[in-house]
Design a protein that fits this description.
Helix content of chain B: 25-40%
Oligomer: heterodimer
Helix content of chain A: 55-70%
Largest sheet of chain A: 2 strands, antiparallel
Radius of gyration of chain B: 18 Å
Strand order of the largest sheet of chain A: 1-2
Order of helices and strands of chain B: EEEHEEEEHEHHHEHEHEEHH
Shape of chain A: flat
Order of helices and strands of chain A: HHHHHHHEEHHHHHHHH
Number of strands of chain B: 12
Distance between the termini of chain A: 36 Å
Strand order of the largest sheet of chain B: 8-9-10-3-11-12
Strand content of chain B: 25-35%
Structural class of chain B: alpha/beta
Number of strands of chain A: 2
Radius of gyration of chain A: 28 Å
Strand content of chain A: under 5%
Distance between the termini of chain B: 37 Å
Chain lengths: ~325, ~250
């Protein structure tokens, strides 16, 4: 092989791989090495403490983690998360469509709703709904200024569970509205125009053309909102509703095993959040076209690939495909 | 006398204080091809969008096949049509946009059959058969399952034309259909449009392609500053324009 003689160290012909290797000395990243060493040290100290500090009382954590009361609390937390988030998404879609309406009253009403619910703390809203009977002791269903079909005591209707769902969903609706609106506004105007030019009605255009494309933009922040909702449900402990946190609180109020029980609660929240993150990843992947670009979950966690392919990369791939 | 495909009388349109159409009068007979030419900002595209009521006019009358666009006249008063009624009329008018505006989340075939199945309520099987026939005419057989972004601009625009034709329109509007295309892709779209014209379709085309206007148009209308300055057969308008404004425009573009 006399090719070795011809090829310099920076030859571009990969005929002989050994000949193409550069013998350059890589840059020494001293700063990164120091930071890495420091983090490793901190991690070791933390792990040692978790294992050797007897006050964590891991045995008690083990006793409680799958005990019936804790699982009952977990069940309520999950129900609250799912129901409130679904209702929140529904309210959000309705509000977003209202805000984009050309009718000013509808648009302004949605704006005021969002302004109010984002402008007051959720904790205050929950306590407010809890005490709504102070404002309206009687609740009736009927036609305003007309006949009444049903009437009842506010305290009977608005149970703590109803308050929790109401408070969480109404609040979530305000945030989801902005997310959905962002998704809709982000769609090129031409999409809606061409649908209209084809004779599709306003609703058909929205349902068949705009929303399916907006979903791609809406999914990632909605996943975040759901994870946030899971943890926000812990606020309902102020309503004496036996969710995960409140159940733990009632146990440690009796046994004074505060830290182990908070560990139990945290482990459950972390576990569910991890499951949700996993689900979010697959949902996002499902709504990303170009199956050849799909990446695995482990790749994503390892941070080896950017979260989203840029559109130019997709177009490039499309062109390659087209030339085939 | 046959009812013209398009009859426009004194159409005016303003955005706030700015008047973009200052009294347009025009007639297009069935089967005719009319090209609207003129500098940007002259109101050509706005006028085209008024024809299928994507823009509302402020005064004047606009009739497509003898029917008022967007309104109903009863005893001398105009009543705005409902969304559904406007849609029914729009379904008879095809439109092709500068940026193709294919539905990005649908395949070529889905793009084409969406409106026929949803708006005209044609069965899916029938719509697919029709779509395949039309795709063959524009030379895109075999691309049914491609997504718009996998196609070149010229191919996308041909799909957009097919999508409009799938509604069996009586009138086709083209809003600068080749302006967003790479120069080497312009020809394939113009060819498709020329084929369409020779099949007898009534077409109104906003364009900067003077060669196309000369070859295909029955009428060329030159617009400037919200008015049709002059119109007539392409040879007359392109070669011996009467107005100063028309002369100076063509001296620059031809």
């Amino acid at each position: 092989m006399d090719s070795k003689k011809e090829q310099g160290p920076i030859s571009t012909t990969p005929a002989n791989s050994e000949a193409t290797i550069l013998n350059a000395v890589p840059i020494r990243h001293y700063g990164r090495w120091i930071a890495t060493a420091f983090l490793l040290l901190v991690a070791m100290v933390m792990v040692k403490s978790l294992i050797t500090n007897p006050r964590f009382r891991w045995g008690i954590v083990g006793d409680y983690i799958i005990s019936a009361p804790i699982l009952g609390g977990l069940r309520l937390t999950l129900i609250l998360t799912v129901v409130a988030q679904l209702l929140g998404i529904l309210i959000g879609i309705i509000l977003a469509i209202m805000r984009l309406s050309s009718n000013r009253v509808l648009a302004r009403a949605a704006w005021i709703y969002i302004w109010f619910f984002r402008g007051t703390p959720l904790l205050v809203q929950l306590i407010f709904w809890y005490n709504i009977s102070a404002l309206y002791p009687e609740i009736a269903i009927g036609i305003p200024f007309g006949p009444t079909f049903w009437q009842g005591n506010a305290n009977d209707v608005i149970t703590p569970f109803a308050v929790a769902i109401l408070g969480l969903a109404l609040n979530e609706g305000a945030y989801m509205a902005e997310i959905v609106r962002g998704g809709i506004v982000g769609i090129d105007r031409g999409q809606g125009e061409s649908a209209k030019a084809l004779g599709m009605t306003h609703m058909q255009t929205l349902r068949r053309v705009i929303l399916p494309q907006a979903v791609k933009v809406i999914i990632p922040p909605t996943g975040n909102q759901t994870i946030l909702m899971l943890k926000t449900t812990s606020l309902v402990s102020v309503l004496a509703l036996a969710d995960l946190l409140y159940t733990a609180q009632t146990i440690y109020a009796r046994t004074f095993e505060t830290m182990p029980l908070l560990m139990v609660v945290s482990l459950w929240y972390l576990g569910i959040t991890s499951v949700l993150t996993f689900g979010q990843f697959f949902l996002e992947r499902h709504f990303t076209e170009g199956k050849q670009h799909r990446i695995s979950f482990t790749q994503r966690i390892a941070g080896m690939v950017p979260m989203r392919k840029s559109s130019s990369q997709l177009t490039e791939a499309g062109k390659v495909n087209h030339n085939d | 006398m046959i009812e013209p495909a398009l009859r426009v009388e004194g159409v005016r349109k303003s955005y706030g204080q700015v008047e973009v159409l200052k009294g347009i009068d025009m007639q297009v007979k069935p089967g005719e091809v009319a090209c609207l030419v003129g500098p940007s900002g002259s109101g050509k595209s706005t006028f085209l969008r008024c024809i299928n009521h994507l823009e509302k006019i402020n005064s004047g009358r606009l009739y497509v096949h003898g029917e008022l666009v967007g309104y109903q006249e009863k005893k001398g008063r105009l009543y705005e049509l409902s969304d559904r009624e406007v849609c029914r009329k729009r379904a008879e008018i095809g439109m092709v946009f500068q940026n193709f505006n294919l539905f990005q989340h649908m395949s070529v075939l889905e793009n084409i059959i969406e409106a026929p199945t949803r708006v005209l309520k044609i069965s899916k099987e029938e719509a697919v058969i029709h779509a395949r026939e039309l795709l063959e005419l524009v030379g895109l057989s075999g691309r049914e399952d491609s997504l718009p972004k996998q196609l070149s601009g010229g191919q996308q625009q041909r799909v957009a034309i097919t999508r409009a034709l799938a509604m069996r329109p009586k009138l086709m509007l083209f809003d600068e259909p080749t302006s967003a295309l790479d120069p080497e892709l312009v020809g394939e779209v113009l060819t498709a449009m020329q084929d369409l014209a020779s099949s007898g379709m009534t077409m109104i085309v906003v364009t900067h392609e003077m060669g196309f206007a000369r070859k295909v148009a029955d009428t060329v209308a030159f617009m400037d500053a919200g008015l049709i300055v002059e119109s007539g057969p392409p040879d007359k308008i392109l070669d011996s324009p009467q107005h100063e404004r028309t002369k100076s425009f063509f001296s620059k573009v031809l």
